[in-house]
Design brief:
By secondary structure, the chain is mainly alpha-helical. It has four helices and no strands. The longest helix is centred in the middle third of the chain and has 28 residues.
């Protein structure tokens, strides 16, 4: 889901792009997803430390599993995006691009 949020952000900021040819259309959501997995783990660590919680189960395994799952999910979504690039199959991506979910003030020119 975070990968598709990355696509929404990218599309809202680059409305006039040729998405199928733009390599950043595929890389931005991938790196955004992976970075957010790391940010989530920082959040868990901070709240555990600050409030005495145990969201991480005091385990590096829990942390790494969460980051790996976030990365694998992003890679699977990337592969679906590449499928859309090759043969146009990808209804979620088509809907995101056509919907113009955000009216970006940066691209009104």
């Amino acid at each position: 889901m975070i990968y598709y949020l990355g696509i929404i952000i990218y599309v809202s900021l680059n409305k006039n792009s040729n998405y199928k040819k733009d390599v950043f259309f595929y890389l931005f959501p991938l790196f955004f997803s992976i970075a957010l997995a790391g940010v989530w783990e920082i959040w868990e660590f901070t709240t555990d430390l600050t409030f005495g919680l145990n969201a991480q189960n005091n385990s590096l395994i829990d942390t790494m599993t969460d980051i790996i799952c976030g990365t694998v999910g992003a890679i699977i979504s990337l592969l679906l995006s590449l499928r859309w690039k090759i043969n146009g199959k990808g209804t979620i991506i088509n809907k995101i691009i056509k919907a113009n979910i955000f009216n970006s003030p940066w691209n009104n020119g």
